[in-house]
Amino acid sequence: MNLVELQNISKTFYKKDDLEHTVLSDISFSVKRGECFTIIGPNGCGKTTLLRIIALLEKPTRGKMFYDGKDIINLSNKEIVMYRRKFSFVRQKPVVLNTSVVNNIAYGLKLRNVEKEEIISKVKEILDLVGLRGLANKNARSLSGGEMQRVAIAMNFILSPEIYLLDEVSANLDPKNAALLDELITKIKQNKEKTIILSTHDPLEAIKYADHIGVLINGKLTQVDTPDNIFTSPKDDFTAHFVGYENIFEGIAHIDQKSGLNRIKIKDLNITASVQKEGNVKVCIRPESIVIAKTPPAKTSFRNSFKGKIDKIRDLGNICHVFVICDSQKFLITVTKQSRINLDLKPESDVYISFKATDIKCL
Amino acid sequence: MTNELIDGMIEAFILIFTFDQEMWDIIFVSIRVSGMATFLAALISLPLGSYLGLHEFRGKKTVSNLLNTFMGFPPVVMGLIIFLLLSRSGPLGGLTLLYTTTAMIIAQLFLAIPIITGTTKAAIESVDPALRETVQSLGSNNRQLWWELIKESKKSTIAGILVAFGQAISEVGAVIIVGGNIRWHTRTFTTAIVVHTRMGEFGMAIALGIILIVIAFILNYTFTHLQSGKD
Question: What's the CA gap between A44 and B35, in Å, rounded?
Fold first, then answer.
């Protein structure tokens, strides 16, 4: 049984001058109890609006939504409050009340008329959990962003909701706070009764927790699948780009009957792949699957090897993005800083790039 | 003229420092009338203003425009309207409220309602929508949300109430029409200043003027303090 189910949810905002702005169109997916569902997509794709709709803070323009089989779009005011209390919504930018940290954390329980003794013991427990004991009596608005986010998390987690809605919660956190959040999310995941719906623009964060991922691009859910399937067989080139396939080329594929290998022609470049797909294809290669060398590779476990020239190098701290042009096609290759120094990679230098036939995806 | 001014000033200070009975009566009537009117207006306007600030409905724009117009409603005209309603031949003439402090409270009440309603509405609307959603998503019902938003915007709301009181106590048109400026009874700061100036009794007029300005100063000081100060 699905705990939450969305059917063709659409949201259009009407601005002044009757300008329409459709933020979400025909979103359908379902989440089972105990599952972690991750919505992944670039900034501005509608993630927050989608979560606000699920949290019953915004009404969709069209579509149906069910909680445990019950329609939760058309509810009375009383029922809205009842169902909102099953969800908790942690926002990307935390908002706290103009009062002490303790009062903030206790607020949701007070709204539910929980006994005072119970509130006190629960608040104590969660203060330790999020490491805010020392700041308990400070005004929450005077805290730093990371501390405030911890207060916001504590305010929601103390309520022990059925469903945790987490909107890019780790986006603005420093490593220490991010580690704490990671610990908390892992803890919730261990409880098989609790459900998480999380949004992120970071593919790595998506794989970390998700049982299922929904790819949201420009207000449309382009793919809903397991993390493995999304990362190994993205449905379109935008998703492919987004989940880390930086090298995408258009080509014509033809399977060689003798060897069973796929020969793909990308303009003047002939590459060999093991995927069985013919005709017009989009070839995807992850930057980390390509090996770069100054001399032609000796071993031939690489079916594909090309000579090229370094166009430019982008330094990203520990790793570097090296752009290599081979027969007018531009490849992005990631190398560690150490190997860049060892190989003495510089713009304009001649290099050989190699990749396996099995590392090529075709769309 | 110079003599009159100096004599008036001296007399004013004598009146103030000898706690003149009539002067105190006037102060008491003024504060009671304007205070009561503001208090009753706040009782009506806080829920009304928050309702307008919280909810979207058809015709809200018209209501807002009307509200803004009434915020600057001329007190004299309000006095006239209340006078016509309460006069012996008017629809509410049977209540025989004309020339009583109750009539003055009613007139000032209707002047204060739009001011407090308008400022409360604006204060509630200016609360960060994200805060409102946070309070909602933590599971508040409408009453709990309303209370939290009032707390959040209490500075501007209290400022609105102070402005309404300041307007009421320094207003002359309405109270002189419906109160009749009866000595020891419905005479206020402003109506007393009018009548004493007319009669050339500048001492009392200046004394009342000074006290009125002191009250205005205190209100203003509190108002600015609220606007700039932290809690």
Answer: 52
